[in-house]
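We emphasize that the prediction below concerns an isolated chain of 138 residues; any contacts that depend on oligomerization or on bound cofactors are therefore not represented. The input was used exactly as deposited, without trimming of termini.
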Amino acid sequence: MGGTAGFAVVVFGGLGGVVAYLAGVVGLRDLRRLRRVGVPALALVRARVPTPEDRALPPRPLLQFETEDGRVVEVFSPVPSTPRHPLPDGGHVQVRYDPADPRQVLVEGRERRPLEYGFVALGLLMVLAAITLAVAVL
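Result of the prediction step, given as a token string:
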């Protein structure tokens, strides 16, 4: 594989790797920021009936909490309910929210840090593969 096809694979592979790497880095930065400046709150878990437009499987429940200034905020959970870590309807979960934007929440103990590290690793791997391919093919 050489010429135009090889060049296209190198460019798209490298760009895809950069995008995956940046997604992981931004996710990790947001996690650290919310752990540092996030305000703790107790959120009520509310189940919602999935609609035909829902693409998230399983559907994420709603989290309802009150901010320090008394506003009631309702957001989609950033993590799904799983058999291992259920978010039962009517249950409570500890969250941290961004005081500047209370819609940005972090569910305590369910940060999904490995997913973010996976994006970083996959991005680096793709960039290295694209560089190796570029040296070998072009």
